[in-house]
UniProtKB/TrEMBL annotation:
Record domain UspA: where: 58-133, 149-283
SUPFAM superfamilies given in the database record: Adenine nucleotide alpha hydrolases-like
Official protein name in the record: UspA domain-containing protein
Source organism per UniProt: Acetobacterium bakii
Family: Belongs to the universal stress protein A family.
Length: 287
């Protein structure tokens, strides 16, 4: 499924945890990892570049050793250039099927990753992007980071959500044992003029979710839950993630509310920015 992945290396308190969580991707077929540290020389004062490079090299060495101890084939590199362009170029040229980025908001290379750079990658990404969030678990619990134990699939039944569901199906085939599917009836679209049809909408969407569920159950031993709620899609999804302690969210970008690419589907943008869970974003069909 994700045979070869590109990991955006960083120096942060969440770095070790990100690498630990990457180990769980073996379940999804990962065999090779490309560790890439990318920085823009224009953002760094003269004379500091060599010092940073030595720090980057030491960090990459530690991360590479950790992954090699888990029997991954690992290559590492330091590249200077435009972050967005280099990440997407590398991923394409190296035949990667997934880009992995740590989810901490502040890093040594600047408060950039979630302030702009990760989103630059997402806006232009042609590949799935996994944002790994720092966990609040204890060090003992983190010895085994299993983000694929329970997958949440929020769907608006758009074409791009269907693309994401194809990935969910592949994850189930690979061994994911629990999936929860969530659809939120958008109160801003329904209330007040269509509120009288809410029961009708729920019945239609319940049937849609049941069709998804039947597909997953046909694949083998899998626990599947269906949920429908009413409210703000972003708020409802975030609340569900916290209440159920969801480790991983899988969702498509450019859903039914998509207007311009910069908004990244709006809901998926907000979830990737604010969710306590890790988020796997699947790009839809771009025109």
């Amino acid at each position: 499924m994700f045979d070869k992945i590109l990991i955006v290396s960083e120096i942060s308190t969440a770095s070790a945890e990100m690498i630990k969580c990457v180990e769980d991707l073996r379940k999804l077929g990962t065999k090779e990892c490309l560790l890439a540290q990318i920085f823009n020389p224009g953002d760094i004062e003269a004379g500091v570049s060599d010092y940073l490079r030595s720090i980057f090299e030491e960090n990459l060495k530690k991360q590479k050793e950790t992954l090699e101890n888990e029997d991954y084939k690992v290559e590492s590199m330091i590249i200077s250039g435009n972050f967005k362009n280099e990440i997407n170029r590398l991923a394409t040229e190296e035949g990667c099927s997934l880009i992995v980025v740590g989810g901490e908001k502040h890093t040594l290379v600047g408060a950039l990753l979630f302030g702009g750079i990760a989103y630059d990658v997402l806006y232009g990404a042609k590949l799935p992007v996994l944002l790994i969030r720092p966990s609040k678990k204890s060090k003992l619990e983190l010895e085994k980071c299993q983000i694929t134990d329970h997958v949440l699939f929020p769907t608006d039944f758009s074409d791009n959500a269907d693309v994401a569901f194809d990935y969910v199906k592949d994850m189930v085939k690979a061994g994911v044992s629990k999936v929860t599917m969530l659809h939120v009836q958008d109160q801003f679209m329904i209330n007040p003029y269509l509120l009288h049809r809410l029961v009708e909408f729920n019945e239609v969407d319940k049937e849609r979710l049941q069709n998804y569920k039947d597909e997953l159950l046909a694949m083998g031993k899998i626990e599947v839950d269906m949920r429908i709620s009413f409210g703000s899609p972003t708020s409802e999804i975030l609340s569900f993630i916290d209440a159920e302690k969801i480790p991983l969210v899988v969702m498509g970008t450019q859903g039914r509310g998509y207007i311009k690419e910069v908004f990244l589907g709006s809901v998926s943008h907000n979830i990737s920015r604010h969710a306590s869970a890790s988020v796997l974003l699947i790009p839809g069909h771009r025109k």
